[in-house]
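Model the whole thing, not chain by chain.
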Amino acid sequence: MKKNMNKTSKNNFITYAMVVVIFAVVQTLSSTGNLSNLLKGLLVPLCVYTIAAVSLNLVVGFSGELSLGHAGFMCVGAYSSALFSNVVGDALPSVPRLILAILIGAAVAGVFGILIGIPVLRLRGDYLAIVTLAFGEIIKNLINVLYVGVDENGIHVATSSAGLNLEAGGKQIMKGALGISGTSTLYKDIKPYLFLIGIILVLITLFVVQNLVHSRSGRAIMSTRDNRIAAESVGINITSYKLLAFTVSAALAGVAGVLYAHNLSMLKVSIFDYNLSIMILVYVVLGGIGNLRGSIIATIILYALPELLRGFSTYRMLIYAIVLIAMMLFNWAPAARNWRSRIVEKIKGTRPKKEAA
Amino acid sequence: MAILDVNTLSISFGGLRAVDNFNITIEKGQLYGLIGPNGAGKTTVFNLLTGVYKPTEGIIRLDGEDITGKSTIEINKAGIARTFQNIRLFKDMPVLDNVKVGLHNHHPYSTLTGILRLPKYYKVEKEMDERAMEILKVFDLDKEAEYLAGNLPYGKQRKLEIARALATDPKLLLLDEPAAGMNPNETQELMDTIRFVRDHFDMTILLIEHDMKLVGGICEELTVLNFGQVLTQGKTAEVLKDPAVVTAYLGE
Ligand SMILES: Nc1ncnc2c1ncn2[C@@H]1O[C@H](COP(=O)(O)OP(=O)(O)OP(=O)(O)O)[C@@H](O)[C@H]1O
Ligand SMILES: [Mg+2]
């Protein structure tokens, strides 16, 4: 049992170390001038999608529910935090303003998670997939027609620019389909550190998810995935633990949204669509359901690859497709799984059976 | 006072009265058997006792407390734990963690304590590990603690289910065909384990079983169910001699 404990902490440690090493390598490459501007531009989005994939894995991999609306939670996190940053403006220095923005984005996304989870997670069956899918689309369409502005009378909300009725000197912040502009300019002074901040947020996400999974509540969450009837028979409240996983996941997706919004000078709602939710789900599935380190690796490979392949424009999508299939086989084909466990066996000298999920 | 006291318990599925006017009284520390031909309604009785189904009629008292109509979770907290005829383990979790899920409600700490790894997390997890290993030892599963439950051989999976149920510290343990699929050696060993559990944990056990050697060997009293109704009840030796019971089984 002591061994069991050490094994999970070792496993967690490897994941943190992997992220730190990736960060160090990228920093070295970048300071020695070996990183193109194109690649540098991918770094913060990479953190965004890593956070999104790790948090989605909590729902898909550990609570065994299917969510197709992860982009929706990123969206509410992005917009609530960007709105906050723009309303507060220079009244607060960048660092505390960003910290507050992150907390607000997480909280708002978390609240949406609770609101959706409470009615839906009571039901048995794949209702969550349908409802989250609808949620993502509804949020997108709502924000598309939402206008928010501030003047000396306070905050105004309307469904058209004219409807805001701002006083002279008032400022429009959210402009419907045009979204929110100028968020990143508010953070000019910390812009060079945004990748570092992104990495810290990735580490925090991993800390929360790994520690949650390897705790009493995490075991309860996994028990509802493995067998809900048995879980109830030993007194586990299925709805509340599924709700816990879903809410934490939504809040962390909100954090991904905050990072996304604060990296851009132009935040548009159109990116938070169904395709984004599916893309993140693909990262989770190909990286291995319930495998957090796999989510990170899959995100890096699958997000960076199409960009790196731009030079081979004709074959780009072909190569991408081949890599997708190869990863799928590597992670899921029984032969590949056996081969991997044999390798693990050789390295560790333990029996593959003892490998915990 | 009886640990379990059930009166006129009934349930219908459509037109079928799967359990009809079922009564049973089990005293503390008893090893009690529920037998009957296939489809007699035995598992349905377990599902009624554990709140999986709500009875259309009748009352269930556990240690004097009326638990009729309560949810499965509340009933487990009140003190009934069970195993399943078709094994239901947490297959993708280690053996140890299966038992620790059973300990869930008895060793609490908050989710935040777990995420932040506060000192209480280490303290309670250590208690849980020790308690879980103690229970696993009883079933000779301690060496497999780190295996995934789904990778255990069949007989050990059945034992792990009992271990997990015991971890919830019940007043009454319900075993649904614990010897199903076991060879005679394993069955013999299981009989010893069940007796040991009763003595060591001071447990009251109600078990469903088709293996007459096991039933005759360890149950002190029996209830025979046929077509949802109680056919006979009483001391094991007498019940097994009852001609009505013999016909019920042979006529099956
Ligand atoms: N949920 C249900 N809906 C409809 N009918 C049911 C349901 N559950 C059980 N039954 C029926 O009730 C009857 C009793 O089933 P039950 O599973 O309790 O039998 P059993 O005595 O456990 O049999 P076995 O020895 O084969 O396990 C059967 O005819 C079964 O088809
Ligand atoms: Mg049955």
